[in-house]
Each structure stands twice: as C-alpha cells, then as structure tokens.
C-alpha cells in the first residue's frame, strides 16, 4: 500500500508566531507518512481536530463561570451535571436581561418597579454585574429621607424671600414623618419613614389617634385574655387554685365539666381525705365563677343594694365583686342548710371557686325539674315542698331566691333541691318583693302547666309566702302596692341607717320606731 501524505501543523518557533495568528500567512507544513489504517482511525481524527482547534482558538475565555463549572474536579461525564450547567448559564443570561429592563424602565424615577420575583437565580447566588445599581454607592439616594431641618429659637431661617418658618408645609411634613417612629411597635407604619415622605398635620393627627386607639384596644384584649375566663372558666389562676386543692388532699381528682352557665361553670370531682375540721363528701361539685365582667354588668343590682355587702361594694374594684358573688352564695347556702332546706353543702370557698357537695350519683348530676317526667302524685308533692321551702326561705332564712324556676331546682331522691342562690337577697332589699313576686309567677305557671290542680296563681302564692295579704283586683294594682311597700322600706332604711328585720306579718307597712 502506497503511503499517503498527510499535512500536519508542526510546532512553530518564536520567530514565526505571527504567521500562525495571521489568517493569510502561509503555514509551514511538513509531510509525514502514515498508513491508510491510521488515517481511518477515530483516535487520530480526534487528535487532529483538537490540534486544529487549539491552533485556531488558543485561549477560550468563559463568559461567566458559575458554581457548577468552576473547579478542576468537575465531573462533566454526567448528563445531569451538564444539564444543570447549561440551565445555570441560561438563568444568568435571563437575569441579566431582566436587570437591563429594570434599569431602562425605572430610569431616575423615585418610584421603581422590580422583576425580583421573576428572576431565576437568587441574588446571593448571582455574581455582581455592571448592570446592577447599588444605591449605597450613589450620592443621591431617592429613598433616603432628608434629615428634618432644625428650626432655631427665633422660629425661622433664611432672609427675605427665602425665609422659612417652623410652620412651613415641607418642614412640618418631614417632622411628622419622623414622629411616626414614636408609635407603638405593633402599629405598622410601612416604609414611609425611609422615604422623603411629607405628612400633613391633619393626616398625622389622624394616624396618631388611630395608633393610640389600637394600643388601648390591644391592651384591653391582652388583659381580657390574661384575666378573663377562658377554656370554660379555667384560666391559669383558676388552674393553680384547683391544683393546690388536689395537692393538699382536699380533692382526689377532677373528672370534668357537668354544667355551664352565663355566670359560672360547674365541675365534678371526687373528695379527698376528710379532716377533723371539715367533712368532705365522696363526690363534690366545684362551682367556678367566671372572672369576666361581661355577664355581671347587669347583675350588680343583686349585691350593691344588699345591706350585707353594701358597704363593701362601693370600696371594691369590679373584679373583687365576683369573689363577693361567690362569698354571697356561700353565706346563703349556709343559712339554707341551717334551716334544713335541701341544698348543696358548702365545703370550702377559695376566691371565686366554691366547693360543694354533689347532687347526684356516680358523676351523673341530678336532673333539673324541667327535664324530669314526674307522675301526678310526685308533681303535687314537689309543689307543696317548694311552697314550704319558699316560706322557710322568707321567714327562717330571711332570704328571697330571686331566680327561682324549674331551671334552678333539681329532683333527687324523691325530693326537690334548690341550687344557684348567689343572687338571693333579703326581703329588705329595695327590689326584694319584686323578686319574690317574679319567683311566685315562675313557680305557679310551671305547676299549672304540669297539671297540678292545687297550684294557685302568683298573687295568692305571694301572699302565702310573705304573709303580707295584699289585696288587688288586677296584677297592675298588685305590683303597685308592692312597689309602695318597697319605697316605704327604702325610705326607712335611708333615714335611720338600719334595716328592718322582717315585714309585719299582718301586712301593715313597717312602723317607725319613734
């Protein structure tokens, strides 16, 4: 086989370097002989191609080297790596185009737009570019607020036409903007402080008033969250009191909630170890009065006019009234228990938590009178029992329930039990007889609807309980006489500074001692 002449580019000397760079120079070629098999070899073809590329492009400059293509040990044999490198280069070019668009659109305007959300590469990953604008390096920053100029004592600066007083619109506007830093931290003022923003006095005063209103509202909400009833009346302070009762051995365990109301929540608990001073029943009812005042705003009339607590009421803050409400129920239950009226037995009182005996069995509370279905004999028996208890309350306990209805009476062990006596007042209360008449109406209507033929109307029941024997043809006149008696009693107490023990049994108004 005849040898074939193949042209190759030899290494050029330093004297002929300009010939290699000049495209019109004549290359100095030498002929080397090789076989046809060597010419057909792929390895030889690659080598020749690399030599030609190196001769034509001796130095290859990377346009932008990213984190994927820097380093000597980069593995380029993986298709995934190559794809990531290509994608990174494309993203960088795309971001550079976006920056150029931003600069073209914004120009020197104070209000600018940004394509930051459309960029592919994060700012801290991208290299610094000449197209980026660094406002920190510029002398005129449109977003940098001008410092408020201080006004001298004389009240103005400048002379002649250039005089500027402290009431200047621009000066006042910048001062008002700087004053927004004094607002509460939770009041969002935006980025207006960092700009050359000028607020008029009217706008600043409106913002200031709104900031103060929001601050007071936030304080009220925080106070309500901390001190008011939460999670069914078990706020942190209430939980601490309950934990102390359990740790002291007074209660064994608290099982759960059995009743909820507007003013209180009742929990069931098992009694602990009894002591010599106190007898703790096996099952207890824990009545937790809600510490929020929303439900007590309209209930203060039951306690502020009660002569047992009238002197203390005016000296207490509103939150201590709730503790007094619990104390009042404890005293009323003690009176009823002494008179032998079926009611819960008081165990202990801790601030706004009242522990009593449980009316029921095995965590099941006794049903209310409105929820139980009784026979005619039991209904008749319950009616006479309630009539007797109302008379005992009025004459022996010197109390009026003031909220007596089928909702506050329980049926347990074949008899009626009275509960919820925190609002009970004495008959000498300025509205005591009105409360009694309301109780008589509720009891009379319930048993008349229940089919008790012996149930009398509210006026006859009122006279039977109080013994006043008020006569009237209609209900309006009857209530008018009740109000007249209450007025006489109130005037007597205000004039003599003491209460009357009881109304006269013969129905006459209270007599003056003189």
Give the SSE map.
Elements lengths: L3 E5 L8 H5 L8 E5 L1 H4 L2 H15 L22 H28 L49 E2 L6 E2 L3 H11 L21 H27 L8 H12 L3 E10 L3 E8 L11 E7 L11 H4 L5 H4 L4 H22 L6 E5 L2 E5 L2 E2 L2 E2 L10 H20 L13 E4 L2 E4 L13 H18 L8 H9 L8 H22 L18
Antiparallel strand pairs: 1-2, 3-4, 5-6, 6-7, 7-9, 8-9, 10-11, 12-13
Helix pairs in contact: 11-13, 12-13, 12-14
Structure description:
With 514 residues, the chain is an alpha+beta fold. Among the domains are: 162-225, no CATH class; 233-365, Phosphorylase Kinase, domain 1 (2-Layer Sandwich), CATH 3.30.200.20; 367-498, Transferase(Phosphotransferase) domain 1 (Transferase(Phosphotransferase), domain 1). The protein contains 14 helices and 13 strands. Strands 5-6-7-9-8 form a five-stranded antiparallel β-sheet, with helices on both faces. The protein has a two-stranded antiparallel sheet with strand order 1-2. A hairpin with a 2-residue loop joins strand 12 and strand 13 (415-418). Helix 12 crosses helix 13. Pfam families: RIO1. Residues 223-467 form the RIO kinase domain. Its EC number is 2.7.11.1. It is an enzyme of class 2 (transferase). InterPro entries: Kinase-like_dom_sf, RIO-type_Ser/Thr_kinase, RIO_dom, RIO_kinase, RIO_kinase_CS, Ser/Thr_kinase_Rio3.
